[in-house]
Every structure is written in C-alpha cells, then in structure tokens.
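User: tokens in, sequence out, please.
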C-alpha cells in the first residue's frame, strides 16, 4: 500500500537544533517508501541570488540544508512566472545537471581492464566507409532499430537474466558466513552524468586507438543545449559530460562505461576478504547481473 506523509515545520530554532532537524528529516526520508511532503519556513535559502538586501549570503551556511534537500529528494517548491523567469530557472537547473564536478579517477580500476582491441579492430574502426557502405547501412535500418527514450533498443528479451536471478535468489536462505544479500541498483540519470574524461580514459585502457577516441570525443562534446518556452528558444549552454539521448552510438559508449563496473565487481572473487553469495559449487560464480542501467549485486 502506498503511503503519503505530510509534515509542517514553523518554529524558529538555533543552529544546533536546525542541524538536528536536518538529520531527523533524512532519517524520516530513508524510512518512508511513499510520497512525502514537507512544508514550513526553514529560514534558509538554497540560492544566493534569493538574498535581497542585508549582508551577502554565506554559501557554507546552506550546505547542510542543500544536502538534506538532495538526500531526501525534495524540491524547493516556489512558483515561477513569466517566460523569462521560467527559462532562467530551467537553464540554471539543466546547466548545473550537465556540468557536475569532474569525478576523482580511481587508479585501482585500471588494473582490472585489459587491452583487448586488436590491430585489425583499429583498422576497421578508423577506416573511411565508401558511399556504397553508407547507403547499405542506411537502407538496412529497420523501424524497430532506433533507440528508445531511455537510450536502449526496445523488444530485447531479458527473460534469461530474470530466470537466472530468480534461481540465484532462492539461495538467500542458505547458511553463509555473514548471510546473503541482494542489492538492486538503478543508475540515476545514467546518460546525463557519464563523464567524458572517464570514458576516454577507459577506452584508452581497453586499447582503442587515439584517433578513434578523438572522433568519439568530438562527437559527444560538440553539443549545445537550449530551452524552448512557448515555442521560443531561450538561451544556449554547453555541457561537460553526458551522452545524447536517441543517438545510436550512445548505448555502445554507455556499455563500455558500465563494463568498468562489471569487471571491477568480478575482481572481488580474487579478494580473500570477500564472501560471495551462496551458490552451488559446481556452477559458475556470479556476483552481479546487469541489463542497461539496472544492476543486481549478490553478496
């Protein structure tokens, strides 16, 4: 049964009490599976531009509040009117979404990636197709081959992985040191948050030629975005990450990035401190299953 929770906060509080309040809200959010609406005057702002008059706003004072909003999945519900203000708010949101801080590269991930692209593969990828090859590729496209809104081809049969997952989960009640755990991961904004530098670094590690990596970099980075409000284009901004939705190349690039996660999980089998999920000894050792941006981890 779905549950809707509503809470109101109006009383002023000290800095210490306010910090306790943020922790309380995060605990409530982690224990509520349904919709949660929280209302009140917290006497806090998320955007320095909202500060009118008085002394300049100190961003660090809002850090815990912003963290709580993001952790709880809450939004600052204020009404925005006029096309210009709507466009400004939308541009600010998406510009921030497509320009997150560059992730810190974990060097240990590099050790689990082999160089598996051969010289013949290099020649095939970097060769220039002639007009007949282009024509054949275009005319052989079917109506069902275009990627869907989530970037992946529809109609694929995943029953084999579903059946395999069900077979593995049956062993969750078996005796095992530390117990058996199944973790379901859904990568949020999977396409929008993929780092270009991360992708380029691991394509290089897989053995792709520099000329091919440069081609991919130019394709994914040469993009400008704009917001259309009432059929009028408002502003332009660039991005520093992400793959293009609907681009036939995007699913393949995303799979390369997820392959890094898959291979790093497989490396756990060589860790003496790792206790795998209970499975029959005569079968293969599986610690995860992946399909698109959904991942099941067995531990």
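Assistant: Sequence out:
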């Amino acid at each position: 049964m779905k549950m809707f929770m509503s809470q109101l906060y109006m009383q002023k509080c000290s800095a210490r009490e306010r910090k306790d309040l943020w922790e309380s809200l995060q605990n409530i959010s982690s224990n509520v599976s349904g919709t949660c609406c929280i209302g009140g005057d917290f006497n806090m702002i998320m955007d320095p531009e909202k500060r009118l008059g008085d002394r300049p706003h100190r961003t660090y004072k809002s850090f815990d509040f912003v963290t709580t909003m993001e952790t709880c999945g809450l939004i600052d519900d204020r009404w925005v009117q006029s096309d210009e203000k709507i466009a400004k708010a939308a541009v600010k949101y998406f510009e921030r979404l497509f320009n997150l801080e560059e992730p810190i590269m974990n060097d240990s991930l590099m050790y689990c990636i082999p160089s598996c692209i051969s010289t013949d593969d290099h020649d095939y990828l970097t060769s220039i197709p002639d007009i007949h090859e282009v024509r054949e590729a275009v005319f052989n496209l079917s109506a069902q081959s275009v990627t869907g809104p989530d970037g992946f081809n529809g109609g694929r049969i995943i029953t084999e992985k579903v059946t395999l997952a069900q077979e593995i989960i049956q062993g969750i009640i078996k005796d095992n040191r530390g117990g058996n755990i199944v973790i379901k991961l859904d990568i949020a904004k999977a396409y929008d948050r993929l780092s270009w530098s991360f992708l380029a670094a691991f394509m290089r590690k897989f053995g792709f030629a520099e000329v091919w990596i440069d081609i991919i970099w130019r394709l994914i980075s040469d993009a400008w975005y704009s917001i259309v409000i009432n059929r009028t284009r408002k502003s332009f901004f660039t991005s520093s990450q992400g793959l293009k939705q609907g681009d036939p190349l995007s699913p393949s690039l995303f799979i390369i990035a997820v392959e890094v996660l898959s291979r790093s999980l497989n490396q756990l089998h060589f860790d003496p401190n790792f206790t795998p999920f209970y499975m029959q000894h005569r079968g293969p050792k599986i610690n995860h299953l992946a399909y698109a941006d959904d991942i099941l981890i067995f531990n």
